[in-house]
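Final report, closing paragraph on structural work. Over the funding period we assembled a curated collection of sequence-structure pairs, and we close with a single example.
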Amino acid sequence: MSPRAELVVLERAIATVPSAIVAFSGGVDSSLVAAASARVLGERALAVTAVSPALATGELDGARSVAAAVGIVHRTITTDELSREGYRRNGEDRCYHCKSELYDRLAALGAGEGYAVVFSGANIDDLGDWRPGLRAAAEHDVRHPLIESGFGKSDVRRWASALAIPSADKPAMPCLASRLPYGTRVDPEVLAQVDRAERAVRALGYRELRVRHLGTTARVELAQTDLERVAIEDARDAIVSAVVGAGYGVVVIAEKPLRSGSFTGKLLPLAIA
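Its predicted structure, as stored:
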């Protein structure tokens, strides 16, 4: 298939519906779906970003900027996943409860305003990962245009770059609850603490990172390219000071580079039902 044909396939998948809501985080996957939906559906496409304590600071502003750049109408909604015991319990199915809350709200919005379908930004690489949220999507008849069109992550980034989407090289930014090990209850105070710690480290010039919450201990994970910098004593001390300032008593800087989903790596993939 020629490179241009890939985009045609994606746009044809989107064109099978008269209108759509895009579940829009502002990450590269949902950004490409939003951009393609705007190209095909125009004002009949709506990007919706969910706001809750699990959304990292700066992510909403980023989503707004991307929506404006790709020309899609953008709106926010408030979700209350913390009201769901299954989410607060933080078992291995936490994402199922989070996505159920999101898709309940988007389905209600779509029904009330006449949107035909909800689109997600899932791509085919997600099918080989632990994604309980895909089960929630199946229960709500959410469609996945990237999966339907055979797009993997590398395809998504290539086309996002070709279309000059601002988030083309944006690092993955899962919700703040993903920093908590399974079994550690999710509450707003812990999410806020993680957010403060990550903002403090990011202010030092680190772009891709996670602060894993381990009670009073924080484990800081950085991208491979930043590990040599951290070997300098002053850089290490600055990171430790920043994270301690967010309320942690002990700070450990991981020797291995950041691997997204490290708390779920031993779980089996979950396919779409």
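The chain has two domains: 3-162, 176-253. The two ends are 28 Å apart (CA to CA). We thank the funder for supporting this effort.
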